[in-house]
Amino acid sequence: MGKLEKRDTKGKITTAALALFSEKGYENTTIEDILEASGTSRGTFYHYFEGKDALFSHMTIVLDEEYRKLAETIPEELDAFEKLMYIDREMFRIIENRISVDLLTRLYSTQLVTRGEKKIFDRNRYFYRLVRQIVEEGQRNGELRDDFTVNEIVKDFSLLERGILYDWCACDGEYGLTSYVTQKMPILFAGYRAK
């Protein structure tokens, strides 16, 4: 089985699980439900995941697929700062409209207590590669400050995103995530814009 086929199979399982978790809730979704929805066998499932909890921690795969799609829609005329605000706003719109607060809360809580690999913080994720690429471009073009390293800016950008998502989860989604991010993120991240 090739690398792309493995990623597709793993992605198919993860995507099916996310839909079921959103529809039925994490506790009410069984592995059998996931097998049926993804069209995979029990052996295939356990080849990729030790169980439902391990699968859940891989939900970042689905989020990264959304970032891949978003990357293709970024208007070229935007500067690097505007591109970062664009992917932030659009991804939070996807999260707000397609992922329940309860599911997102569970994802964050599993990452806080997980020992070892924490997928959400994996710097090799597509999200981090995309943000790093935009920041590098912004520094080359004089659009973002260069007295901070690329990694420092990427870390702070992701830290702000996680903080906002954490707050939204802690407040049980009581405010509009997309409108909040659209208004506040440019203010919070403005210090990285080149003068």
Structure explained in plain terms:
With 195 residues, this protein is an all-alpha fold. It has helices at 3-24, 31-38, 42-48, 52-56, 60-71, 80-98, 101-113, 126-140, 150-170, 177-189. Helix 6 (80-98) packs antiparallel against helix 10 (177-189) and helix 8 (126-140) crosses helix 9. The relative contact order is 0.11. The mean pLDDT is 86.
Could you name the key traits of this structure?
Arc Repressor Mutant, subunit A, 10 helices, single chain, 195 residues, mainly alpha, Tetracycline Repressor, domain 2
List strands and helices in order, with pairings:
Blueprint (H helix, E strand, L loop, with lengths): L2 H22 L6 H8 L3 H7 L3 H5 L3 H12 L8 H19 L2 H13 L12 H15 L9 H21 L6 H13 L6
Helix pairs in contact: 1-2, 5-6, 6-8, 6-10, 7-9, 8-9, 9-10
Write the CATH homologous superfamily of the largest domain.
Answer: Tetracycline Repressor, domain 2
In the CATH classification, which architecture of the largest domain applies?
Orthogonal Bundle
Low-confidence stretches: none
Largest sheet: none
Query: How many H/I helices?
Result: 10
Radius of gyration: 18 Å
Structural class determined from secondary elements = mainly alpha
User: What separation lies between the terminal Cα atoms?
Assistant: 51 Å
Query: What is the fold-level CATH name, i.e. the topology of the largest domain?
Result: Tetracycline Repressor, domain 2
Mean pLDDT: 86
The CATH class of the largest domain? Mainly Alpha
What is the tally of beta strands? 0
Secondary-structure element order, N to C? HHHHHHHHHH
Strand content: under 5%
Query: Which geometry do the CA atoms define?
Result: elongated
What is the percent of helical residues? 55-70%
How many domains? The number is 2
